[in-house]
């Protein structure tokens, strides 16, 4: 009883998730794709670090943190641009994008300084 | 004629009459300007009484590094290896200091020189702390405005301008990290609260920069990186989870962490040290939380969501605990260092790390210190907490948490009263502002109620209810006036107390001592600087001076000579070696001194003047620290029945150790006080035990005019016969 229903649950879960996600707008999906790409890059870097060791540590950290940072900033942008969020309905999407670009600029400048 | 002359005047006045909003703005701006000036000038007592000089011990190192920075430029400063301290080890200065203060002072110096004000860097250093104290009052105003309203902001600015808890570390001349760090702390907190309130990425970026400035300024940044995650956790638990919080915390954490790692002294601690793990844990927790919230929003079926929730939470918790456990067990994540661990367990330092326990600023706080430093704020603080709880919002929850945690730490260590001061001032400001506002509303509503009740009988029931209220308590207006007078009386007493405390307790330079002479005239003891300048002018440039670590920074800054140990106290064994040398017999001590290439020994002695912070009073700490590394030094050898004595009944090891001999050499013939025998030690109040001191391997080089600093030269080894 448990195993069969849990399998059905998982299947139903995935199906409903997929159908709900297909309903999101295009610009949000682009942002999601960007976030996924950034996380994927971070994972590749971590796997590489596990293989060859972590020296120099500052380079590894700056690489991983730049990926994680830009992913997080993209998620923040997604939150601010998403029309369903009541808290941000007064914020023009251009302003949100400008903030996103500024923060990314600072992130990458600091990262390049830290790269060594 | 007179009537005609009066009319244009009243017309003139009418043309100047401002609208209410403009009047209010004028009042606010003028109050802030006055508070700004007040915060600056109340810190100038020591400059007026003595001269514009750097106080205490640590500021001399900061001054020396700032001097180096302005003379040699930032690149040389960042990569500076100092061979003039911790001989023969040297010190990597670039990587072991917090550069914020020095860079700030050098920047102000450069700006002033650009504007053609040719000031000396020392003046800039002396006045940096008061300048930043004034800026802190401005930040306090904006922070108060954010939390409560403009009235609370103004009161907060005034309270923090004169609060003794802050003044103690930011007087003119106290050129220390805390002077800038408290400004950076409050600024970072203000920017973060603003970011949480608005949910804007720009404000979060600003708070990340504020955090970067704080990390560059002071080691106490650990407080920020632990308080903010704790605050986020509290908000999550109390259900105030909002998108703004996500944006604010994540942007600040990632950018702040990356910026903070640019400071070499901090290095990789943000990912490796146990003290910073709370922030990372909350970061991952937020990702999980937000992800779950998003999935819940997308799934319409709650049963499916429950299943999903269960799977995800168990996975996340398992992964998190495994990672943390692996990290701590393998030693990759270092446990809390001694300095911060002793905040959680106050008895830790006393048993394990005598150097931390010996610093007088690290002792637990007495109630009198709280009263001394806070005065009426001490009972306005609980009142303010009550008001905050009445109007809970994201911002007031933050200030309540800041207040409570900082008060706990202030109770553990005297030095941390400084960190609690902004929180106490802000919360007390809320209490004062809310009370005064309620009282004045009572005063004004009474009049209005009477007027509206009489003229507009048909207006809302509000007027009639007010009239009823007024009728039920006929003495309300008088009570309000009396309470207002009481509040103003208390605040004026606070101002008087703060000024008195600043003048009496916190304005002494510590390097120049003052006393009252026989006829009430002021006597100045400038012995320290006399000795350092003697060193500078009468010893070879590569001479090495051995002294206790308290004076190391001053000797390198003013005497310009190499020292063996200084206030950085980064190498306990080196300090213990010096402590062992000071507490051994002369024959053993000379071996140690020759192995360290010591040329001169400097001791501080207060027996002639009654100065009680001298080396004989610090001697037991030298024994303890030396004995902690070299078991040959045992503390009971120097005590008699557990008592520390220097007179005839003292322990023989005490009477013949190097420190005793150096301090009391030739003191046996000295008459210090009328009616007492020669060799009467005024600081201990006894006649010394060993008056006939002969030095075999050292000779006296210099003793200052009041015998406070004594310098001895190490004699080269004898010829063969």
TrEMBL record, chain A:
Annotated pathway: Protein modification; protein glycosylation
Presence of keyword Transmembrane: yes
Domain of life: Eukaryota
Primary residence: endoplasmic reticulum
Lipid bilayer topology: Multi-pass membrane protein
Localisation per UniProt entry: Endoplasmic reticulum membrane
TM spans (from-to): 33-51, 57-77, 97-115
Sorted UniProt keywords: Apoptosis, Endoplasmic reticulum, Membrane, Transmembrane, Transmembrane helix
Alphabetized Pfam families for the sequence: DAD
PANTHER family xrefs: DOLICHYL-DIPHOSPHOOLIGOSACCHARIDE--PROTEIN GLYCOSYLTRANSFERASE SUBUNIT DAD1 (PTHR10705)
Family: Belongs to the DAD/OST2 family.
Function: Subunit of the oligosaccharyl transferase (OST) complex that catalyzes the initial transfer of a defined glycan (Glc(3)Man(9)GlcNAc(2) in eukaryotes) from the lipid carrier dolichol-pyrophosphate to an asparagine residue within an Asn-X-Ser/Thr consensus motif in nascent polypeptide chains, the first step in protein N-glycosylation. N-glycosylation occurs cotranslationally and the complex associates with the Sec61 complex at the channel-forming translocon complex that mediates protein translocation across the endoplasmic reticulum (ER). All subunits are required for a maximal enzyme activity.
Oligomer status and interactors: Component of the oligosaccharyltransferase (OST) complex.
Protein name, entry field: Dolichyl-diphosphooligosaccharide--protein glycosyltransferase subunit DAD1
Annotated organism of origin: Hibiscus sabdariffa
TrEMBL record, chain B:
Record domain STT3/PglB/AglB core: where: 544-602
Membrane-traversing stretches: 25-45, 92-112, 124-144, 150-168, 180-205, 211-234, 246-265, 277-295, 307-333, 370-388, 395-411
Domain of life the protein comes from: Eukaryota
Topology of this chain in the membrane: Multi-pass membrane protein
Predominant location: membrane
Pathway annotation: Protein modification; protein glycosylation
InterPro entries attached to this UniProt entry: Oligo_trans_STT3 (IPR003674), STT3-PglB_core (IPR048999), STT3_N (IPR048307)
Catalytic reaction list: a di-trans,poly-cis-dolichyl diphosphooligosaccharide + L-asparaginyl-[protein] = N(4)-(oligosaccharide-(1->4)-N-acetyl-beta-D-glucosaminyl-(1->4)-N-acetyl-beta-D-glucosaminyl)-L-asparaginyl-[protein] + a di-trans,poly-cis-dolichyl diphosphate + H(+)
Family: Belongs to the STT3 family.
Database matches in PANTHER family: DOLICHYL-DIPHOSPHOOLIGOSACCHARIDE--PROTEIN GLYCOSYLTRANSFERASE SUBUNIT (PTHR13872), DOLICHYL-DIPHOSPHOOLIGOSACCHARIDE--PROTEIN GLYCOSYLTRANSFERASE SUBUNIT STT3B (PTHR13872:SF1)
Protein name from the UniProt record: dolichyl-diphosphooligosaccharide--protein glycotransferase
